[in-house]
Design a protein that fits this description.
The complex is a heterodimer.
Chain A (H helix, E strand, L loop, with lengths): L3 H13 L6 H5 L7 H4 L4 H15 L5 H4 L5 H16 L1
Helix pairs in contact in A: 1-4, 1-6
Chain B lengths: L5 H12 L11 E4 L2 E4 L2 E5 L12 H14 L7 H4 L3 H14 L3 E5 L2 H12 L5 E5 L4 H9 L3 E5 L4 H10 L7 E6 L11 H11 L2 E5 L14 H5 L7 E5 L9 E5 L12 H4 L6 H16 L2 H20 L10 E6 L2 H13 L2 E2 L1 E3 L9 E6 L6 H17 L5 H4 L1
Parallel strand pairs in B: 3-12, 5-6, 5-7, 7-8, 8-9
Antiparallel strand pairs in B: 1-2, 2-3, 4-10, 9-10, 11-14, 13-14
Helix pairs in contact in B: 2-11, 4-11, 5-6, 7-8, 12-14
The chains are: A mainly alpha, B alpha/beta.
């Protein structure tokens, strides 16, 4: 199971592929980065981002849980928890 | 209070500055299923979803007028509180019979049908699997349900299968939701493959035939008929506001106990039922649709002529000919300019801008009707091609 650090690195790699995200924006990503505000994503772009993450992590992240995710750190914790649950 | 919509206010101001606001067009008069008067000018309507041209069908109008005179202008309440009219019962029997289903229930709009059915079917522990390009009514229905919602890649049965495998160990029912024809690009779902995934994984399947009812299939039963998978489709949802020329929505099913949804679906219970004149005209429209299969053939001939004409001119279109033909453009500004120039030439189409479009494309969306004449289609191809050349999108300037 990947560590939270690996999860963060993969998230940043996916962020780099998103439309409208410049290399500088991706370089500046921290666990505190707000997904909607700092990455300039609208609601559809967030759903597409989640879909890319699901593919990268071989998992599902139900949209109803996304409402509770504000930052990149929230996202990493949600994915790590889901992977731990699946591995259990 | 409205400050949160500053970005929308700004976008609308930009649209107004570029000419007519495409989202607030108000016709002076509707002249026929395919023409209207707008600011004193007669325009060809190529963006109505009036696929079979039944809005002015004499028998539908006569039936509606008769119901209006005998049963009044409205029901003034929901069927749960105010009771059901005979016209509602007749329409539900007609829907079920047309689709070869045991039961059907009707809603006041198609939007409400998706809201009401999805929220009622999928409970807290259940899972909704939505095609990524689903209509807003499907997304809104999923939000009203308490289910866990997972998107899969558009028209990708393998991606759906993969996600269902991830969910295999989770409790609750899984409901797959797809559409027959997608409203933005006119593309069609690979329904036979989706049905195979449904069978293998034990999920349920709901197909929204909003744009395909009366359009696809030897008998007009939609994509499920074409794909030969009606037995695999657990719930058929659709609308009366497109091929049937009126307003309202429905869900039809063979599932035992389906009737319980009438007291579980809030979008059915807590809104006024459709006026009897509407129910009567839709019932008649089903009969016309069944009696005149030639309307579908004319529709498809018109759709093919428009698609081939625009394709030959060099435009980027949706993947297959269908009654929805969309010209794909590279920017919202170009699409707005294009739309205004078409209107000036007397052609009304729909403008679809990101984020409401797949892959954030800017689209000039057209929808063809069986009521269009060959001359209408030629006029549309010529007008779109001329404006495309004027804007440097197609033609010699591009080839050079």
């Amino acid at each position: 199971m990947p560590s939270e650090k690996d999860v963060n690195a993969t998230i940043v790699a996916v962020i780099r592929t998103l439309d409208g995200v410049t290399p500088a924006m991706a370089d500046a990503v921290t666990p505190e980065t707000n997904i909607l505000r700092d990455l300039n994503l609208d609601s559809i772009a967030v759903m597409d981002f989640i879909m890319e993450l699901e593919t990268a992590f071989n998992t599902v992240i139900p949209l109803d849980t996304v409402a509770e995710i504000a930052t990149v750190g929230d996202l990493a914790r949600a994915i790590t928890a889901e992977q731990a649950r699946t591995a259990a | 209070m409205l400050g949160k919509y500053a970005h929308l206010t700004q976008s609308l101001a930009g649209l107004r500055a570029a000419g007519t606001n495409p989202f607030t067009v108000a016709f002076d008069e509707i002249l026929s299923p395919t023409s209207a008067r707008l600011n004193g000018q007669t325009v060809v309507l190529l963006g109505t979803n009036n696929y079979l041209g039944l809005t002015f069908d004499e028998s539908c109008i006569e039936t509606a007028v008769s119901a209006l005179q005998t049963e009044g202008t409205g029901t003034t309440g929901s069927r749960i509180a105010n009771g059901t009219y005979s016209a509602h019962v007749a329409l539900e029997k007609q829907v079920a019979s047309f689709l070869g289903r045991q039961d059907a229930m009707v809603f006041t709009t198609g939007y409400q049908a998706n809201l009401g059915i999805m929220a009622a079917l999928a409970g807290r522990d259940d899972h909704l699997l939505l095609d990524a390009d689903s209509h807003a009514s499907i997304y809104d229905g999923s939000r009203l349900s308490e289910a866990q919602v997972t998107r899969f890649r558009h028209n990708d049965p393998d991606d759906l299968y993969r996600r269902l495998k991830f969910l295999a160990d989770k409790p609750g029912d899984k409901l797959i939701v797809v559409e027959g024809i997608y409203s933005m690009l006119g593309d069609v779902a690979p329904l036979a493959e989706f049905a195979a995934v449904k069978r293998e994984t034990g999920a349920y399947l709901l197909v929204d035939e909003a744009h395909s009812l009366g359009v696809l299939g030897e008998n007009g039963r939609g994509l499920q008929e074409v794909a030969g998978v009606e037995a695999d489709v657990d719930f058929v949802v659709g609308t009366f506001s497109k091929s049937l020329g009126s307003i309202g929505g429905f869900c039809a099913s063979d599932m035992p106990g389906f009737e319980v949804l009438r007291v579980a679906s809030r979008a059915y219970m807590f809104t006024a039922s459709m006026p009897p004149s509407i129910a009567a005209s839709v019932t008649q429209a089903f009969k016309v649709m069944a009696a005149k299969p030639e309307l579908r053939r004319t529709l498809m001939r018109n759709a093919d002529a428009l698609y081939q004409g625009l394709s030959k001119a060099g435009f980027r279109l949706g993947p297959t000919p269908s009654p929805i033909v969309s010209v794909r453009l590279t920017s919202p500004e170009l699409a707005v300019a294009f739309w205004n120039k078409l209107l000036a030439r007397g052609l009304y189409v729909n403008l679809a801008l990101p984020p409401a479009t797949p892959a954030r494309e800017s689209l000039l969306r057209t929808s063809v009707s069986a009521a269009h004449s060959e001359a209408d289609i030629r006029f549309a191809v010529d007008a779109i091609t001329a404006v495309g050349e004027e804007l440097g999108i197609v033609g010699a300037a591009v080839v050079a």
